[in-house]
Amino acid sequence: MPAKHTIALCILILLGSSALLAQEPAAAVNVTQQSISKLTFLRPGGPSLGDLANYGKVNRTEGTPFLHEEWAPGRIRFEGQPNYSEILDVLPDLESNILNIQLSSGYIGEFPMDRLDAVTVYGPEQDTTVLEIQDLNELFGVGDPGRRFYEVLHRGDRYLVLHQPIKYLRREEYVENLGMVRRPDKYMDRSQFWVFDGASLIQVKNNMRSISKAFPRKAATIKRLVRTNDLDLGNDDDLGRLFSLLEES
Asked: pTM (2 decimals)?
């Protein structure tokens, strides 16, 4: 079997094993907050509520590098484990790709990415985000190196669609405004999208032109599906739905 196909099979197995993360965890949970706090690989330290409240004042920035502006309830799954942890507070850092956790005891620490399969975050506006952790560069030789957060937009028999949420710090230059006044640096959102077609991993933009170029044999079908289903590919749900419809075409 060619090496790239072997790698492709590995990524399907690795990512497919995390599919159950989108479901509510079973009542029986093997990992408790107490056992998490006793794990020696946890690195202490991370932002407290006070740190978050004063983040911009201290760092002279607008926004934060985190998924949400505050701690949110969530569950984590250890590498190689079948079950979620109990509810704990989580704070994914989308700039440094670090998962900060806070236990009910008040303990704050960093959960190593190399021991994490996924994290489910229950956002402040009743939104739920499931982030799986993979090193696509190691598996495919493309993408950012290191284990990073990815959101699965679609997982089917023929296609796997991943959204990589990223935050980066945009540094402002000095501007003239009644003298030389420095505007604060600002955290910005950026996204990368990846499609695995069973043989290779392809980076696409979330628009019809980019996706049609990446899959030229499907270009006419993509255009038809977008038009007939009134899909807005700038919307993550609609982007995932496009590939779900492609599975059926």
From this structure: 0.82
